[in-house]
């Protein structure tokens, strides 16, 4: 089991491991959850997502993180920090969140996103975090605005 990197009021965050594939598949293969990607992932796409995430850990120390409910130990989804080489012409840390459908509407995305940003400032030492999303993704934009991010 990977060590916990940080916690929020209701969640713990750690790196994904190959043993988490089943939990990952639940949200990545769900077309409702993955509407911003325009489709639920196939088995091959899940494998690719996990491999790319592992590479991010090796290269940058962070990537998508396993968000776990402290009370139930259930997987809330993937919320994390991805180092991105081109956001509005700048290199930087990108915040992302993919929340399992059964946790929608309960504030987990905002809580986890806020926790990731605080961790990025404290542990990584960055002073800026970006988030990219489709303009049509009203739910993600609402989360970003709720945690104080500004539209650029």
Nutshell version of this structure?
The model has no long low-confidence stretch (mean pLDDT 87). This protein is of the alpha+beta class and 152 residues long. It has 4 helices and 6 strands, in the order E-E-H-H-E-E-E-H-E-H.
Write the layout of secondary structure elements.
Layout: E1 6-7, E2 11-15, H1 21-28, H2 43-60, E3 64-69, E4 75-87, E5 90-99, H3 108-124, E6 129-130, H4 138-146
Parallel strand pairs: 5-6
Antiparallel strand pairs: 1-2, 2-3, 3-4, 4-5
Quickly give the structural class. Answer: alpha+beta
Amino-to-carboxy terminus distance: 38 Å
Mean residue pLDDT: 87
Unreliable residue runs: none
**What is the H/E order?**
EEHHEEEHEH
Total count of helical runs of at least 4 residues: 4
The tally of strands reads 6
Most strands sheet: 6 strands, mixed
Helix content range: 25-40%
Radius of gyration (CA) equals: 14 Å
Shape: globular
Strand order of the largest sheet: 1-2-3-4-5-6
Strand content: 25-35%
Verbal overview:
It is a single chain. The chain is an alpha+beta fold. Helices cover 34% and strands 25% of the residues. It is built from 4 helices and 6 strands. It has helices at 21-28, 43-60, 108-124, 138-146, and strands spanning 6-7, 11-15, 64-69, 75-87, 90-99, 129-130. It has a 6-stranded mixed β-sheet, sandwiched between helices. α1 (21-28) crosses α2 (43-60). The longest helix has 18 residues, at 43-60. The termini are far apart.
Provide key terms for this protein.
alpha+beta, 34% helix, 152 residues, six-stranded mixed beta sheet
């Amino acid at each position: 089991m990977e060590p916990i990197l940080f916690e929020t009021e209701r969640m713990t965050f750690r790196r994904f491991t190959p043993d988490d594939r089943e939990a990952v598949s639940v949200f990545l293969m769900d077309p409702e959850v993955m509407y911003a990607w325009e489709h639920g992932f196939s088995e091959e796409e899940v494998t690719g997502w996990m491999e790319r995430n592992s590479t991010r850990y090796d290269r940058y120390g962070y990537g998508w993180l396993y968000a776990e409910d402290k009370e139930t130990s259930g997987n809330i989804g993937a919320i994390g920090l991805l180092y991105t080489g081109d956001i509005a012409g700048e290199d930087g840390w990108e915040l992302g969140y993919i929340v399992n459908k059964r946790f929608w509407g309960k504030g987990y995305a905002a809580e986890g996103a806020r926790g990731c940003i605080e961790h990025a400032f404290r542990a990584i030492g960055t002073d800026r975090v970006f988030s990219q999303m489709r303009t049509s993704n009203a739910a993600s934009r609402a989360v970003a605005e709720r945690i104080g991010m500004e539209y650029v």
